[in-house]
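Quick one: structure tokens for this chain, please?
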Amino acid sequence: MNSAVLNRTLGLLTGQVVGRSRYAEDLLDQAVQQNTQQYVLVGAGLDSFALRESHHYPTLKIFEVDHPDTQAAKQTKLKKLGNIPATVEFVAINFEKESISEALNRSLYDSSAPAFFSWLGTTHYLNPQTTLQTLKSIANFAANGSEVVLDYSTDFQELNGIERLGSMGVAQFTYLLKEPLLGQFKPRDLHQAVEQMGFEVVEDLSGEAITERYFNARIDEIRHTSATRLLHLRLNRK
């Protein structure tokens, strides 16, 4: 199979992973310039921000929140690469059994100071109610002005043609891998839910808008899938 065909197919996954991290880190940089000094990576997985960028933000406290088994495997890999940055704290959580506020209460997180939360590559695998409960926990726990960036899967019914078929195919594939895609949202319904929690929807980028912003005119044809979106929220309790 030639590279152009691969980029039009697997390139959607590349665009999704790279695009969401670039978006979150662009907004984090803006938040730090406005004196936010706490960065919470929800469902951090193998995110490499702490290794790549922590030296650029020496006063930024980084909290990686994830399942303890995932964290143990990651820390083993990090120790083989060298020292884990001193500004990183690993916070264990089981999203299905406890709230993020309960987990962060066990850490050095300061709930009186604003924080920037990124939640990438996770909500697709969670029951929608779990996603909403986690966002509500953040809304009730974080300081006003805190920000959240997350990606989410668009309801299949919102997609057209090949994108719908492709998303359904991916869902079937992940089901066979025993990592089923459980969470899809209609943007309007999600916006209404988070606004009731006290969040302001700053931006909700479609796949096409992400491609325009980050992958425009690439000769390799890598682009962002239209099956997922990027949502930027700011806590604005009245």
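The helical segments are 3-33, 49-53, 68-81, 100-104, 128-141, 161-176, 187-197, 207-214.
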